[in-house]
What we know:
Blueprint: E1 2-8, E2 15-26, E3 28-31, E4 34-37, E5 42-45, E6 51-53, E7 60-61, H1 65-74, E8 78-85, H2 97-106, E9 115-117, E10 121-125, E11 128-133, E12 140-145, E13 156-159, H3 163-170, E14 175-178, H4 179-187, E15 199-202, E16 207-208, H5 218-232, E17 240-245, H6 249-262, E18 265-267
Amino acid sequence: MSASVEGHGLHSGAPGAVRFERHDGPTVLRARGIDTRVVDLRVVDTTRSTTVADPSGVVRIGTVEHVLAALGGLGIHAGVAVVVEGTEPPLADGGARRYVDLVRALGVPPSKAPLRVVRAGVIEHGGSRYELACGDGHGVTLEVAIDFDDSRIAREARWTGDPDDFCERIAVARTFGFEREVGDLLERGLASHVTPESVVVIGDGRVLWSGAPFTADEPVRHKLLDLVGDLYLYGGPPRGILRVIRPGHAATHAVMARALAAGLVVRD
Length: 268
């Protein structure tokens, strides 16, 4: 049994498709006929999104965070192959809800996250701060705080690992950007196939959206969504507590490398 979604990538505008299939063993990404365990993928670019490659460098896939967030939000770390056609997954709904629905249709049960916080610590990277604590060693707690100096945008979001809550509240948070950035993106040929329903554009005096109403906490919920997807590459989100102030793709991957090296987190 499999499920798929087709469309255009957010940054490249290129057509692509993602199909989820049942698979024995840990989650793998399958592209160009090559299966790579997700935890073995290398992060090779963090410009506006996360781009990964297989260890040989033959496979290179951009903007993987929304697809992986669906798996991380559902707590599925085994039993699924993510089959990618093209070089970037479709933007789909701008979040991860369509991917969540497709993964759920497979009926794969959740499994324990292999990543675990074993020692409290704080790691800073640029303007970002990542605070780790052990918690009870079983559950997942993620807290995200942002500060865009804009009263229309809420500062904090929290998720405690519940798949239904992720599906209904986090996965639906759309990609967002600022109106001042749109011209530059279009000049560079980025975001050329974005549909109005899949993004929120925040301007100086207005917020542009279509479809579901915009709410003040949608940007920070999307930041949490991206964090879940990035952490999935390491076997997360980790069991324990992680509070992140001003998260970003580059910061998350740099911090996770340091946290693993320092023994703050381990893979069971």
